[in-house]
Amino acid sequence: MSENNPFPNESNTGHFWDDSLRELTNDPPGWWRIGFHASWLWCLVYFVLYPAIPTLDGYSKGTMGWTAVGEYKEDLASIDKVRQKWEDKINNPNTTAAMIIADDELRNYTVRSAKVLFGDYCSACHGSGGSGNSAMSADQSGYPVLADDDWLYGGTIEQIQTTITNGRKGIMPNYGARLSEAEIADLAKHVVALSDGSEHAAGKELFNNPTKGGCFACHGMDAKGMAALGSANLTDAVWRFNVVGKGDNRQASATHTIAHGVNSELIDPASRNAVMPAFGPLGKDLSAGSIKKLAVYVHQLGGGK
Fold first, then answer.
1. Nearest to 170 by CA among 101, 222, 231
2. pLDDT value at 150 more than 80
């Protein structure tokens, strides 16, 4: 900083650097002063109109009485007013899920509005868009894909609605206590072969033997399952409990399921756990309208019959 002012006729503070860089005393430009005064005036007006200043017992309410919650409720009310005609139809006890599907406009509204319901109540298990979730290890549960045409309890809109309302809990007995390891291995080989379109002779004999495996009683003589019992179709390539890993793990998965069963945890702690919770009055207690929405949404994912 220079002690001598090389610019005596200039409005500056006398602070210089390198004898050329200096601090001037010019007034701020007019636009800046206008903006400065407008900003504090605006703050004053805002504090008067809107809640802004903390007080000992809360905060200043503002002369307009505005609140974010109040604005949210007003917007929600306006949206509900638009939705009301569709909601009234859906919530009408005489309107069935099948009738909703048959009405293009009502179906489109239902599918769009049910997306949030599905995200809240279903996607945690069945994945976004009903993509499902296979078991990652032998002691984990798998969750069915809802976008294909493989249905344990049937894929009609009525069956889907019943499943959502009442939940499902199928039971497969554990054969570890009644069959030898070799017999369980043969049955597992047969199950894997069935999914490939072939069969395993020794395993097939156990499958059809009522005093041994007796699997046909639930899965049917054709091994395609029974919707009334929720027994799986063993002839397709859909594996709910397939263990993910290197190579083909179907043999290990089938062996574990046959040996320890499904939902037989009271008898065998290693049993698979596969329970679909109820969302009706005996479960989550969703409204009848919400359950119809979810049923239609699931049905329209691509696999509904």
1. 231
2. yes
* Co-location of 245 and 122 in the same domain: no
Contacts of 188 (CB under 8 A, 6+ apart): 203, 251, 254, 255, 258
Overall number of domains in the chain:
3
Q: How many residues does the chain have?
A: 305
pTM: 0.76
The pair phi, psi for residue 155, each rounded to 5°, is -115, 15
* Judgement on whether residues 80 and 162 belong to the same structural domain of the protein: yes
SS3 3: coil
Tokens 């800046």 — which residue?
Answer: 32
Among the candidates 59, 78, 98, a domain finishes at 59
Please, is 218 exposed, middle or buried when counting C-beta atoms within 10 Å of its C-beta (0-12, 13-18, 19+)?
middle
| Residue 305 forms part of a structural domain | no
- Rounded-to-integer distance, Cα 80 and Cα 120, Å: 20
CATH code at position 84: 1.10.760.10
32 to each of 28, 38, 39, 290, how far by Cα in Å? 6, 10, 11, 58
Q: Distance between CA 140 and CA 142 in Å, rounded?
A: 7
User: Predicted confidence band at 213 (pLDDT cuts at 50, 70, 90)?
Assistant: confident
Q: Which residue's structure tokens are 């006890």?
A: 93
pLDDT digits (tens, 9 = 90+) for 39-74: 999 999 999 999 988 888 888 999 999 999 999 999
- Tokens encoding 250: 């179907």
**Distance in angstroms (rounded) separating the CA atoms of residues 251 and 125:** 25
CA distance 146 to 131: 6
Tell me the angle at which helices 157-166 and 288-299 cross, rounded to the nearest 10 degrees. Answer: 130
